[in-house]
Amino acid sequence: MSVSVKDLHVQLGSNHVLKGMDFDIKSGQRVALVGPNGCGKSTLLRTLCTILKPSQGEVRLEGELIQSYSRRERARKIGLLSQSDVIPMMTTVRDHVSIGRHPHRSYFRDRSSNDAAFIDAAIEVCEISHLADRPVERLSGGERQRVRLATLLAQSPDLLLLDEPLTGLDLEHQYALLHLLEDLSQKEGRTLMVVLHDLSLAMRFFDRLLVIHEGKLVADGLPADVMTSELLSEVFNIQADIGHEPATGQPVIICHRQG
Fold first, then answer.
1. CATH code, 53
2. Do the beta carbons of residue 25 and residue 3 sit within 8 Å?
3. Contacts by 231-236, CB closer than 8 A, 24 or more apart
4. What is the pLDDT of the chain when averaged over all its residues?
5. Neighbouring residues of 98: CB distance < 8 A, sequence distance ≥ 6
6. How many structural domains comprise the chain?
């Protein structure tokens, strides 16, 4: 699913959070949103899925204004993993993951065999099959994060918006998720916009970076072109160089001791 953002401004109270953003994303791209805390990354995702209303500008999906889609159509096309997602404690893992299928059901139809297939596949790919019948209240924080991810995957949206999805995950499951996101874009053509704080992972696993600073888009392009020592100093206030792992050649950020 293609996304087009033109002259996007978002104001929350007296705070002008997003200031004139312009970018176009092609279907199937993996885009990492990076920037300091409070720069507007989460606000951008919440605006793209219409939780927040822009004060100026427009968002288009597949060339159509996002407001032209019904709420149910948007729920089928766009999936958001938010930092503030709350999982009801008095439910099982499988029941919670099944919530992801709600946009695809009619008001008078129960869960179908097709729904069950999506639910089972999401549970399996997030490696929580052994937890499927366990009450959510008995899960660790990392396990609950994987349940949230499975719920999003069961929804099967064309555009996935993930706000810090690595939160709470150990290293094994962080890398498993990032490889899964690669597969979703490369094999299934899903479009991904993901907020990350680990800049080295953003450079390694994503084919495009959007760098946001003080509500403005200050850099946009290939990771190798965007991530420079100058940008790290100006945007993230750190002194660092871009190096490469000897074994793989993958880019890494090498920070210098401050002071």
1. 3.40.50.300
2. yes
3. 232/199, 235/35, 235/36, 235/211, 236/36, 236/199
4. 92
5. 111, 115, 119, 154
6. 1
What are the CB-based long-range contacts (under 8 Å, 24+) for 49-55?
Answer: 49/74, 49/78, 49/80, 49/161, 50/74, 51/80, 52/10, 52/12, 54/8, 54/9, 54/10, 54/18, 55/9, 55/10, 55/11
The token pair at 241 is 């160089």
Instruction: Give residue 15's Cα distance to chain centre.
Output: 24
Domain of 79, in residue numbers: 3-255
| Tokens coding 43 | 């606000």
Q: What does the pLDDT look like over 156-214, one tens digit per residue?
A: 999 999 999 999 899 999 999 999 999 999 999 999 999 999 999 999 999 999 999 99
Distance CA 112, CA 246 (A): 50
The structure tokens listed for 95 are 């029941």
